[in-house]
Design goal:
single chain; 353 residues; alpha/beta; seven-stranded mixed beta sheet; six-stranded mixed beta sheet; 34% helix
């Protein structure tokens, strides 16, 4: 516990500062959900060097060029990128302007030191605490992890999430093109009750359907055991807008409550009614909507206590708030963390009774 206290004690203090966020790209879109849960944080504007992004907004916050910032001792910039090279270049630019800055993760973890330490203390095993602490440092410094931190077989690396599971249902939230479903079928030796896939992106959904038709033939799976729903997952039944991979320059599709250029309207559903028993495995990679999804399903989760593998890397608020939420919903759950890529992406919280 002393090491995490030491790390958190060196983080910047932004209370009373005039705060800007530098970066209005894909990472900023992922952070938007997390930032909306910090009402005490006022952001003056997003800043970006790209003229194509300037004079637009992130939600209702304007995007401005660097020369429109108020540059004095009361100004602080949170750099919103997961790319170390970009982070170094922006830091150098701000240093030349005489403006204090840090990664957005460092600033947010600094605001929520107690919550971060609480989330760390809730982890069940030594490896989880090592991974969590290491990724905390990596996010603060915007530094890619070493290979020693990376675990293979994402979503299926821990014993409670492997092996044949008679009667189990698999809820794949953010099914993408069916890659996790294919690995689930192999991990379960084809033994399960049903699969329900949720995917809002129209192009991904078409690929998902194509893949599942192949898998049903190869594994002799009846149509009744596999369902595909072209929708997102959140805390309520509603509609939302989805920017697909093409609009996002090849990155994963993004969901937003407001319509951006090229975005498609799509339904979202609350997950609770799909959780029918404890013999259920929920996988969630839904682009910063994980916290909302869990909040909306809290009664069903508390009642049935399904296994959950949920991404916590999309923004630094999720990194501590999702473990805390899970323990609030069902205190008896065990929590583990593993990291699954050479970047800051793919940190997963594993939740099991």
């Amino acid at each position: 516990m002393e090491k995490i206290k030491a790390i958190l004690s060196n983080l910047p203090e932004i209370t009373g500062k005039r705060v800007y966020v530098w970066g209005a790209g894909n990472t900023a879109m992922l952070f938007r959900e997390g930032l909306s849960r910090i009402p005490q944080l006022h952001i003056e504007a997003f800043v970006d060097n790209d003229p194509a992004k300037q004079n637009k907004t992130v939600g209702d916050i304007p995007i401005i060029p660097a020369d429109r910032m108020i540059a004095d001792k009361d100004t602080f910039v949170m750099i919103c990128t997961g790319q170390p090279a970009a982070f170094s270049a922006i830091t150098a630019q701000l240093s030349a302007m005489g403006i204090a800055c840090s990664s957005i993760d460092a600033a947010i973890f600094g605001m929520f030191k107690e919550e971060v330490m609480k989330a760390y203390s809730l982890l069940d095993d030594a490896e989880s605490k090592h991974v969590y602490l290491s990724m905390l440092e990596n996010r603060i410094l915007c530094r890619f992890p070493g290979k020693d931190l990376i675990t293979s077989d994402q979503y299926f690396c821990m014993l409670p999430f492997t092996g044949a599971a008679v009667g189990e249902s698999f809820l794949d939230c953010g099914a993408y093109v069916g890659d996790s479903i294919e690995r689930y079928i192999w991990a379960r030796d084809g033994v399960f009750s049903k699969i329900i896939a949720f995917e809002p992106d129209q192009q991904n959904f078409a690929a998902l359907q194509y893949r599942l038709e192949r898998l049903k033939r190869e594994w002799n799976i009846s149509d009744e055991r596999v369902s595909c729903l072209r929708c997102g997952v959140s805390d309520t039944d509603s509609t939302i807008y989805v920017e697909n991979d093409d609009v996002n320059n090849g990155f994963s599709s993004k969901m937003s409550a407001t319509q951006a250029e090229g975005a498609e309207e799509c339904s979202i559903v609350a997950l609770g009614r799909f959780i029918e028993s404890g013999n259920c495995f929920i996988k969630a990679d839904i682009e910063s909507y994980e916290y909302r999804m869990l909040s909306g399903a809290k009664d069903a989760i508390a009642k049935h206590r399904p296994k959950i593998a949920v991404c916590i890397y999309h923004n630094s608020v999720d990194f501590f708030s999702i473990p805390l939420l899970i323990k609030q919903i069902a205190p008896a759950y065990r929590l583990a963390v593993r990291h699954h890529s050479f970047t800051l992406s793919e940190t997963v919280l594993y939740v099991y009774p």
